[in-house]
Amino acid sequence: MPIRFDKLGVVIAAIAGCAAFAAPFATFRANRIVPGQARSILEALPPAAGPLLLAIVVTAALVALFKTPQQLRLAASVAALAALALLIGVAGTFLTPAGNTFARISPASGFWILIFAFTLLLADVLTRLELSPWARVGVLVAASAAVGLLLISGSWNDLSILKEYANRADSFWAEGSKHVTLALGSLLAAVIIGLPLGILCHRVERLRASVLNVLNIIQTIPSIALFGLLIAPLGWIASHVPGAAALGIRGIGTAPAFVALFLYSLLPVVANTVVGLAGVPRAANDAARGMGMTDRQRLFGVEFPLAFPVILTGIRIVLVQNIGLATIAALIGGGGFGVFVFQGVGQTAMDLVLLGAVPTVALAFAAAIILDAVIEMTSTRRREASPA
Amino acid sequence: MKAWLPALLRLALVVLLIAFLTNPGLFEPLLKPLTENNAPVIYNQGSLLTLTLLHLRIVLIATVAATIVAVALAILVTRPAGAEFLPLSRSLVNIGQTFPPVAVLALAVPAVGFGEKPTLIALFLYGLLPIFENALTGLTTLPANVMEAARGAGMTGWQRLVKVELPLSAPIILGGIRLSVVIGLATATIGSTVAAKTLGEVIIAGLLSNNLAFILQGGLIVAALAVLIYDGLSAVERYTARRMGREAG
């Protein structure tokens, strides 16, 4: 039997090979801002662990290289990722001189490229397995639990990003909850206002073009400008409307960030409501009318359930976009994970940037997976409920 | 009468934009009420025109690079030889779009330093996705009868690609480019937080010195550029779609 190569596997094996043997695995720095020294896998790990990691990486790369069953590929990618995650923590402990609190050990390019290579493999396997929505959420929960366990167990505590975290544990959670509140709160407000607005636009044709145009133009204003522009009107409201300041409305801080995110969120919600309602089959509406349903019954009993998956798609766009945009709120004192990103950029402290960026990306990613699963569930249910 | 109104509005916007960029002093009285304590009304640490051109240049370079790479990748994964990569590339596009631009920008800094480079990288990566997604849609939803006819006429794979598939997908690909340009124009302003010379500089100067006039002029120039370019590309898209007999996506 001729040996058959997997095309994607060739790419993955090439990337993994270069990263494992030619790129640094970890970086050692005497303190948090001096340039670092690169350490290869064999230099960064204790005598037994280095060759072990190389063996795991090479085996997983070989599994990827040839045409192998999906289950084996799944096991290989998960094993390689788990080994990398565990051993980078070991490298942190191994490279930190005893009792030295200034030294910083961070994962270097080789580590990140290896993670990227095996995540590609894992993503390919998961895509090909065509998991059900519940299974995808399950994978997400399992992955988060694994990362959570590693964090709680303290095996990553000697890595620089967690040392930055240790110095800011309180503010990390405070900014984190601000970030989530901003993203979810503005989404909620946009749904409360946007859904009725979308229904109105669907019913009143003259309104549709102008409302969507205005919302489109708002989207083109760069986020930092929109955040800035809201400072003045909100400041004015705070000082002239009695009670407004007590509600937390202020020129700078969370209020303008909230309003800006809300304004950006309106377009996807309204536009998708309009598209979803417009896509309701004529026959369904006619049948509902024939049964003597009132306009209101038709809206809630027929049009809305049928348009729901499309509206949810709009909500998914908004949530992912809001989680990303909320980082910019930090520029106007609105808090959120952006605080660490911009502090880190200011101090050229990469670890601090990561402390802000990694949770943001993780949140956006988790939100996307969960909402995609929900969208798929609602649209398949709809298809099952209305057999052709 | 209604038909020429939007065209007139756009023309007025172009004239206004050019007038503001070449002679911002004219507009000083309009913006004056927005400043306090005799702060400067018009951005004074560099010419607005130069910044606008630099802003457009960054977006242009990033978009051209993103278009070449994204279309090449889309062609690759829709050929029989690259078909194995198709499912993965679809999920990668989905994953990539969840990365916030600020995070991409900030993570690029340690790799390439401050200035234009991290901004270019972020704009390039961020621009790839919409173009790739649309190119994939365009190349995978070609009418089957047309493809059959091209094959029947004895066209080689290359001829089919250049003479049939790409021209037919052009309107949809253009739609992706339009999206990516508009995202790029706004994202480039964030580039100024890592010292890229773009219009974001004006906005950030306004944020730092609490000068609303700066924020407004920076923001409005970018918004006007985005609206005009969006409209321009939509027109090109409609034109190609009409020529190809396909509805623009």
TrEMBL record, chain A:
Q: What is its main location?
A: membrane
Task: Please give one Pfam family short name.
Answer: BPD_transp_1
Database matches in Gene3D superfamilies: MetI-like
Location of this chain's protein in the cell = Cell membrane
Matching InterPro entries: ABC_transp_perm/SBD, MetI-like, MetI-like_sf
Q: Where are the transmembrane segments?
A: 46-66, 78-98, 110-127, 134-156, 180-202, 214-237, 257-278, 299-319, 325-345, 352-375
Q: Which membrane topology term applies here?
A: Multi-pass membrane protein
Q: What UniProt keywords apply to this chain's record, in alphabetical order?
A: Membrane, Transmembrane, Transmembrane helix, Transport
Sequence ranges assigned to domain ABC transmembrane type-1 in this UniProt record: 176-371
Q: Which PANTHER family match?
A: GLYCINE BETAINE UPTAKE SYSTEM PERMEASE PROTEIN YEHY (PTHR30177:SF30), GLYCINE BETAINE/L-PROLINE TRANSPORT SYSTEM PERMEASE PROTEIN PROW (PTHR30177)
The UniProt similarity line reads: Belongs to the binding-protein-dependent transport system permease family.
Name of this protein:
ABC transporter permease
Automatic annotation (TrEMBL), chain B:
Give one Pfam family: BPD_transp_1
Q: PANTHER family recorded for this chain?
A: GLYCINE BETAINE UPTAKE SYSTEM PERMEASE PROTEIN YEHW, GLYCINE BETAINE/L-PROLINE TRANSPORT SYSTEM PERMEASE PROTEIN PROW
- Its recorded name reads ABC transporter permease
Q: Which domain of life is it from?
A: Bacteria
In this chain the ABC transmembrane type-1 domain maps to 52-233
Q: What is its main location?
A: membrane
TM region positions: 51-77, 98-115, 121-147, 168-192, 212-236
Q: Which InterPro entries match?
A: ABC_transp_perm/SBD (IPR051204), MetI-like (IPR000515), MetI-like_sf (IPR035906)
Cellular location(s): Cell membrane
Which species is listed as the source?
Mesorhizobium qingshengii
Q: How does it sit in the membrane?
A: Multi-pass membrane protein
Q: Write the record's keywords in alphabetical order, separated by commas.
A: Membrane, Transmembrane, Transmembrane helix, Transport
Keyword Membrane present in the record's keywords: the answer is yes
Stated family: Belongs to the binding-protein-dependent transport system permease family.
